[in-house]
Design brief:
It contains 9 helices and 8 strands.
């Protein structure tokens, strides 16, 4: 039986169409897959943005609470009869938190408030500039003369040494914990000399001066005996000024001891026996039992909110790094 030419031609056309349909289905499948991926990516981006905004919102809330927590402390609300508190924290130096400008400004506000019964100098400092300490000492005495009804109490926390004790000596009475470090009534000046190192390295020192003492205490030149002797007179004079102010502030309460002004530090318990302090107790103890006004109001300047935020973030970051590196091995009672 013969074949039909028309059927043969239709068969060929059908075979030619099948591959094209197959390709079309593949492209549609690919297109659907790509569109599905795009939808998933868009959804993932939306959720990512949402969670990022949620995280930032959470951080801002936490930082806000952390930053302004002190403002809502119930025992530091202003108004009504209270004991004024002025903080002396850290190194006493110009430009630092414990600068004379900051402390004196706080003292003037504290004395000027009619509701403050007395002023507590809350000290936690290793000391610092004798000039800055002297400014504060003199201002306390001046304000006490202007407001004889208001006493000043110094309360030493962990440490009140050197310039910090200089300031404490201006108070009517000084209190500390039995384990506080108190004293260090002395003056120190330290530095380095690099003369031998320069010779080993082969560095030549070129220093042109007008005035024979302009290279005084130059670390790159040998220390001359006359320079050492002169600088010692400066240190001795400053030390005697320090001793004189402590004697004026403490008076007959000081117990004579050969080591009292040698630069040594003592515990609070030892300091009580030496007459360096008047009793053992905290700020709250002084406010409650000595002053008779338990509520305390802190007059210490805290800076702008932005400065507080930056400082606290820096401290937190530093503490975290120190903890991770195992560098926070301070001496502690265990």
């Amino acid at each position: 039986m013969g074949s039909n030419p028309w059927e043969a031609e239709n068969s060929k056309e059908t075979e030619a169409v099948k591959p094209n349909e197959s390709k079309t289905k593949e492209w549609r499948l690919i297109e659907k897959t790509m569109m599905g991926l795009q939808k998933e990516q868009r959804a993932a981006r939306r959720w990512g943005i949402f969670f990022k905004l949620l995280t930032f919102g959470y951080l801002f809330v936490v930082l806000g609470i952390y930053l302004f927590a002190d403002s809502f402390s119930p025992d530091m609300d202003e108004g009504g009869e209270h004991t004024a508190v002025v903080q002396v924290n850290g190194v006493i130096a110009d430009g630092e938190d414990a600068s004379a400008d900051n402390i004196i400004g706080a003292l003037r506000r504290a004395f000027g408030d009619e509701d403050s019964k007395a002023v507590i100098l809350r000290i936690n400092s290793p000391g610092g500039s004798p000039v800055q300490s002297g400014y504060v000492y003199d201002e306390v005495k001046r304000l006490r003369a202007l407001h004889p009804e208001k006493k000043v109490y110094a309360v030493i926390l962990d440490i009140g040494a050197s310039g910090a004790y200089y300031i404490a000596a201006s108070a009517d009475e000084i209190y500390a914990d039995k384990a506080s470090l108190v004293g260090s009534i002395g003056v120190v000046s330290s530095g380095f000399g690099f003369v031998d190192l320069m010779e080993k390295v082969g560095v030549e020192r070129r220093n042109l001066i007008s005035g024979e003492n302009k290279t005084f205490l130059d670390p790159f030149s040998p220390l001359q005996d006359k320079d050492r002797a002169f600088w010692q007179t400066v240190l001795d004079t400053t030390h005697n000024q320090f001793i004189d102010q402590v004697r004026k502030g403490r008076g007959d309460r000081l117990k004579e001891n050969d080591q009292l002004f040698s630069g040594l530090v003592w515990t609070g318990e030892q300091s009580l026996d030496l007459g360096l302090i008047d009793g053992l107790g905290s700020s709250s103890y002084v406010a409650r039992d000595i002053v008779g006004a338990e509520k305390m109001v802190d007059y210490t300047p805290k800076g702008s909110p932005l400065e507080q935020l930056i400082d606290r973030l820096g401290v937190t970051f530093g503490k975290t790094i120190a903890t991770q590196l195992g560098l926070n091995n301070s001496v502690q009672l265990r």
